[in-house]
Design a protein that fits this description.
This protein folds into 2 domains: 1-106, Rossmann fold (3-Layer(aba) Sandwich); 112-225, 3-Layer(aba) Sandwich (Rossmann fold), CATH 3.40.50. It is of the alpha/beta class and 225 residues long. The strands form 2 sheets. Strands 3-2-1-4-5-6-7-10 form an 8-stranded mixed sheet, with helices on both faces. A two-stranded antiparallel sheet has the order 8-9. 37% of the residues are buried. Helix 1 runs parallel beside helix 6. It has helices at residues 17-23, 46-53, 69-82, 99-102, 125-132, 167-190, and strands at residues 6-12, 33-40, 58-60, 87-90, 109-113, 136-143, 153-160, 194-197, 200-203, 214-215. It binds 5-O-phosphono-beta-D-ribofuranosylamine.
Length: 225
């Protein structure tokens, strides 16, 4: 018998395109997971609207009503538990999280970041990539620990940086890959196939051919010519 679906608690701040990718995952990734609750630190977050449209509990938790970041995260944990979330997904969540959230969900929190980490952590990853003149950028899904954007890497996808790219153009190209690798990483967790070994994440593969740790759509984009 297959495992019951993994229950996701998704933390968001903005547009929510990654949340949508999770909600509507497939057909490329059959995710054995369901979004149990969406929590946003911003009332205006479009992600909350996406959730409500899909009849998913959507909560705005206002940071101003909490004395500290720790108090805020304590309330986040309470809500996650209330909705029986097994895995926490940071999908465009703009707040730094504290040990109050990390401890109870140790190795059960993942984040999507729009660069090939460890390059360009923090804000404005695409701007940093363009300023550095890298030829390849991409995105990373990683476990979250106390060090910002430095947790063990689960999947990365690479995209070319093209002459004349603006931040918006690069963002759009990277975003397409984010929407592929985030559901894939969730599915690996749903299948209980990830093992953390120091900095590294080992992907247990039931079949020799299964599994995807790296996505390189550069060939699909005709970049090999
Ligand atoms: C994405 O680029 C994600 O990598 C970053 O924030 C952005 C969120 O976009 N952490 P969206 O809200 O999922 O559309």
């Amino acid at each position: 018998m297959s495992n019951p679906p993994l229950r996701l608690g998704v933390l968001v701040s903005g547009r929510g395109s990654n949340l949508e990718a999770i909600i509507h995952a497939g057909p490329s990734v059959q995710m054995n997971a369901t979004v149990a609750v969406v929590i946003s630190d911003r009332a205006q977050s479009q992600a909350l609207e996406h959730a409500r449209r899909s009849q998913i509990p959507a909560i705005h938790l206002n940071p101003k009503t909490h004395a500290s970041r720790e108090d805020y995260d304590t309330e986040v944990v309470r809500l996650l538990r209330e909705h029986r979330a097994d895995l926490v997904v940071l999908a465009g969540y703009m707040r730094l999280i504290t040990s109050r959230l990390i401890e109870p969900y140790r190795n059960r929190i993942i984040n999507i970041h729009p660069s090939l980490l460890p390059s360009f952590p923090g804000l404005h990853a695409h701007r940093q990539a363009l300023e550095w003149g890298v030829r390849i950028s991409g995105c990373t899904v990683h476990f979250v620990n106390e060090a910002m954007d430095q947790g063990p890497i689960i999947i990365q996808a690479a995209v070319p940086v093209l002459d004349g790219d603006t931040e918006e153009m690069l963002e759009a190209r990277v975003l397409e890959q984010e929407h592929r690798i985030l559901p894939q990483a969730i599915q690996f967790l749903a299948e209980d196939r990830l093992e953390i070994s120091g900095r590294r994440v080992v992907l247990r593969s039931p079949k020799p051919t299964a599994g995807m740790k790296v996505v390189s759509p550069m060939i699909e984009l005709g970049f090999n010519q």
